[in-house]
Design a protein that fits this description.
With about 350 residues, the chain is of the alpha/beta class. It has 2 domains: about 5-60, DNA polymerase, domain 1, CATH 1.10.150; about 65-345, TIM Barrel. Helix content is about 35%, strand content about 20%. The protein has 12 helices and 14 strands. The protein has helices at about 10-20, 25-35, 50-60, 130-145, 165-175, 195-205, 220-225, 230, 235-250, 265-275, 300-315, 335-345; strands at about 5, 60, 65-70, 80-85, 90-95, 100-105, 110, 125-130, 150-155, 185-190, 210-215, 250-260, 280-285, 320. A 10-stranded mixed beta sheet has the order 3-4-5-6-9-10-11-12-13-14, covered by helices on one side. Strands 1-2 form a two-stranded parallel sheet. α4 packs across α5 (about 165-175). The structure holds S-adenosyl-L-homocysteine and iron/sulfur cluster. Iron/sulfur cluster binds near residues 111, 118, 192 and 213.
C-alpha cells in the first residue's frame, strides 16, 4: 500500500529517502515541494527521474480538488465542495474578517454523533480525514483565491475529537514553519463534548481555543438534541470545561444554537447563566440554520436579543455570531447533501 507522503514530517521523509539510498538533502527538497502545494511527483523537477519514479510506487500525495465553489454576492465568503482522492466530498468555508482570512475546515466525511439539528450527521460517518487532507483544504483555497489564511476553525463537517490522532498531527503540521504556518492561538477546535478526549487535549496544553457545542442548559433538552449527552451529561462536560480552562488558562467558547421553542426561553437563559457562573468562558449565540428534512426553526431576532440580555445581566460575555455568506448556505453539511440529492433523487 503506498504511504501518504504529506502526513510525514520532514525528518520522517528524510529517513525514508536515506533508506532508499539517496542523500538526506533530497528529503528536504521533497518537503519543500510539498510545502509549496505541489501535488504531483512529476513537478519535483530537481529530483532525479529514478527517485521520482520510485516515490510514485511507494507514496501518494493526497490532495483535494475543487468540485464546486460558491461565491457570496453579499460579502467575500467562498464555500467549497472539495473532492478527496477516493471520490468522497467535504465542505469548507473561507471567510474574510478585518483581521484576515479565516477558514472553516472539515475533519471527517460525515459524522456519527447524530445531533438532531445537523445536516452533516444525517448520513452517518463515512471516514476520517487524514492530517494531510485537512491541510490540503487550506492550501487549495489559498491557491484558488491567491490569499493567505491566517486563522482556522475546525467547525466544518465531522467531530474533530472523534478523529483525535489525525487532528493532533494536523495541528502540529499547521504550525510548522515553511508550510501554512498558522500558530495555535489562531486555531479554534469545536466539539460536541467528548469528555475523555477533552481531558486528553488538556494534557497537550495547546494554546488553541476550545469551542464546546452546548446548545442546552440541562440534560433533558440536551439529550434530545445531542445523543452524546447520554454518554457525557452536562455536569461531566462542564466539569471537564472548568478543568480545561483552569489548566490551560484559555477561555472556553460555548456555542449555543438558538432553536425556536426548544432551548430559547428566558428560563433556559437563567439556567445557563447559573451553570456557567464563575467559569473562564464566553457564550456564542447562533441563530440555528434551518435544514431541509429537519423540523427545527430558528429563534426570532427578538428572542436572541432577550436571551443574550439575560446572560449579560448575569455577568457572562456574549456574542451573536455574524452571519457570513447567508446567500450561499454557508453552514457546513448542507451543500454536500444538496449535491447528493441532485445526483440521486432519493438523497442517498
Ligand atoms: N462536530 C463539532 C464541529 C462541527 S459542527 C461540533 O459539533 O462542535 C460546528 C458547529 O455547527 C457546532 O457548534 C454545531 O453544533 C453547529 N451546528 C450544526 N448544525 C447546525 C445548525 N443547523 N444550526 C446552527 N448550528 C449548527
Ligand atoms: Fe457531528 Fe457536530 Fe453535526 Fe453533531 S453538530 S452531528 S457533532 S458535526
Amino acid at each position: 500500500m503506498p504511504e501518504d507522503l504529506k502526513s510525514l514530517t520532514t525528518e520522517q521523509i528524510t529517513e525514508r529517502i536515506v533508506k532508499m539510498g539517496y542523500p538526506a538533502f533530497r528529503g528536504k527538497q521533497i518537503a519543500g515541494w510539498l510545502d509549496s502545494g505541489c501535488s504531483s511527483f512529476d513537478e519535483m523537477t530537481n529530483l532525479p527521474l529514478a527517485l521520482r519514479e520510485q516515490l510514485k510506487t511507494e507514496f501518494f500525495i493526497p490532495g483535494v480538488t475543487i468540485l464546486q465553489k460558491w461565491q457570496s454576492q453579499l460579502d467575500e465568503t467562498t464555500k467549497y465542495l472539495f473532492e478527496l482522492s477516493d471520490g468522497e466530498t467535504v465542505e469548507s468555508v473561507l471567510m474574510s474578517y478585518r483581521h484576515g482570512w479565516s477558514q472553516c475546515l472539515s475533519t471527517q466525511v460525515g459524522c456519527r454523533m447524530g445531533c438532531s439539528f445537523c445536516a452533516t450527521g444525517m448520513g452517518g460517518l463515512s471516514r476520517n480525514l487524514s492530517a494531510a487532507e485537512m491541510l490540503a483544504q487550506i492550501e487549495t483555497a489559498q491557491r484558488d483565491r491567491g490569499i493567505r489564511v491566517s486563522s482556522v476553525v475546525l467547525m466544518g463537517m465531522g467531530e474533530p475529537l472523534d478523529n483525535y490522532d489525525n487532528v493532533l498531527r494536523f495541528l502540529k503540521m499547521l504550525s510548522e514553519p515553511g508550510g501554512v504556518h498558522i500558530g495555535m492561538r489562531h486555531v479554534s477546535l469545536s466539539t460536541c463534548g467528548l469528555v475523555d478526549q477533552i481531558y486528553r487535549l488538556m494534557e497537550e496544553n495547546l494554546q488553541l481555543t476550545l469551542s464546546v457545542s452546548l446548545h442546552a442548559p440541562n440534560n433533558e433538552i440536551r439529550s434530545r438534541l445531542m445523543p452524546i449527552n447520554r454518554r457525557y451529561p452536562v455536569e461531566e462536560l462542564l466539569e471537564a470545561c472548568r478543568r480545561y480552562a483552569d489548566t490551560t488558562g484559555r477561555r472556553i467558547s460555548f456555542e449555543y444554537a438558538m432553536i425556536h421553542g426548544v432551548n430559547d426561553s428566558d428560563a433556559c437563559a437563567e439556567e445557563l447563566a447559573k451553570r456557567l457562573r464563575g467559569m473562564l468562558c464566553h457564550v456564542n449565540l447562533i441563530p440555528a440554520n434551518e435544514v431541509k428534512g429537519k423540523e427545527h426553526r430558528r429563534s426570532t431576532g427578538e428572542r436572541l436579543k432577550q436571551f443574550s440580555r439575560i446572560l449579560e445581566q448575569r455577568g457572562l460575555t456574549v456574542t451573536v455570531r455574524r452571519t457570513l455568506g447567508a446567500d450561499i448556505n454557508a453552514s457546513c453539511g448542507q451543500l454536500r447533501r444538496q449535491k447528493r440529492e441532485e445526483e440521486s433523487p432519493c438523497g442517498r
